[in-house]
């Protein structure tokens, strides 16, 4: 057991490289007899069989329990290593030594397990990992007292019902981090649109900040939308009609946008502070917009803004009590559940088979979506205008692990 704890620096770094290097060096290159120890063939002497590699993975899991912020991979990563060490689906663990693997020409006839795991890194990320933890704790000193050594229920009782929690903490935290990342990206785009509207009004961002001291009124949004779509009149907070200058109505935004009144939206009482403060601070839509805004937004349409707002799921469905996918694929405790970033529903790995850039994201990075949402976005007219490019993936993470 001591040799397993001797090199914690391997675990504290990027698992896609150094943990792979640890197994390649300490187990495969040094000649651990996987064929004999796992007894892949019936002709092997039963006395040669021994779960040494399973004990190694168990010891790593014990470290993960005591230091959850020190490891960049999760429990599913260890379970996948254990499963494919015995499955022979990949040629990585076949053979007793390097000579056996060369004689069997495994590099030519089989696939590598590391390629599969790198194409599915999103399944193996630990959301509790903190990079600074490895700097503050360069050496892991686990508590080896008997009461701190726990039974690995996820491995030894994986297929028993009733012994696992209803939802995985790791998957729940990972889904929350993805949800927050999606909303942050959407907020960045909305801030950009607000700045463009400020240019249309010919005012600075400081005056908008001063006007956002109260609640946002749908009445104020109505004024901005009426201005944006090129109308010559707009209602102010007093219910009067403000006449807009003719040069505020170029073909910047061509299609109308419907807005609910304050009474319909439930913000009837005390929610028009923004529109009043905008008028008091001189942010009335009577002002002529700057010409730079017209030049920068001449291709912006209301259809595009609608597509940006509607393409993001504000609320994601909870993973709890989701027993099966819409395709009837059953979920167990260790099956990875995926959220569609557009509709927010939960799907299996077969139903999330595409990554595509959403119009509502500022970075325009490809994110996972379900098949119906992919078809909807792919055939949307606004997508062709923005030149979104979709690409098939096998759940390969499109961003680097922090």
Looking at this protein, list some descriptive labels.
elongated; 5% strand; 42% helix; 402 residues; disordered N terminus; mainly alpha
Description of the molecule:
A hairpin with a 6-residue loop joins strand 3 and strand 4 (346-347). It is built from 19 helices and seven strands. Helix content is 42%, strand content 5%. It is mainly alpha-helical.
What fraction, in percent, of the residue positions are helical? Answer: 40-55%
> What's the story with the biggest beta sheet?
3 strands, antiparallel
Overall strand count: 7
* SS summary, helix count: 19
SSE string: HHHHHHHHHHHHHEEHHHHEEEEHHE
Uncertain regions: pLDDT < 50 for 5+ in a row?
1-13, 215-219, 227-296, 386-402
In short:
By secondary structure, the chain is mainly alpha-helical. It is built from 19 helices and seven strands. It has a three-stranded antiparallel sheet. A two-stranded antiparallel sheet has the order 1-2. A two-stranded antiparallel sheet has the order 3-4.
